[in-house]
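Researcher: Please predict.
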Amino acid sequence: MNENLFENPAAPASSEWYIAHCDGGSRGNPGPSGYGAVIHDPQGRTVARLSEFLGSQTNNYAEYQGLLSVLRWAAQNAVRQLRVVSDSELMVKQMQGKYKVQSPILRPLWEEARSLARQLDRFEIRHTLRGGNQEADRLANQAMDKGTAKSREPGTGGAGKQKAGEQIQPPFAQSGKTPPQPPRQVLEGFVKNGVVHLLDGTLPDGLFVKIVRE
């Protein structure tokens, strides 16, 4: 097994690779999330498009659910060789064993993905930039759009549809009370070449953070 590949040495060599592109996203991280995936057979024909709205989750959770959807589809359709392409560098390197999985939320997803991958004769996972994953990204965004719209419909537990230009004020805005402060959040990460890399989750642009060295 090399850094990209799970391989069963007893399996006969073959060039019949299925290619899957998968993606996941979250609007708010955590926030409304979903995944998308497209699978091509060895002749390049599209054989499956997969997507699902996941509710309020993180980007990395959605990325793993996209990978799991592909691996489950492969198991259900007797696929023996699978090459996965993803723009999640974290997930790819965790699957390759280059990064540790310290998140208690991602750990069981990683374990299931590794278990399903080992059931194949051959499995590869590779990283690409977002431009190389456009259809999967589109499917993930469609899932988020549909799921978010449905959750806002009356009677579905959402907040209801908001009219264009309408601003909904929270209760404390009318009462004059001080708005509640958001809870303190601790994220784990590491520094490489002067850049902070989070092990799980991302931060929105413009957010001020305090870094504590341990």
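Model: The chain has five helices and eight strands.
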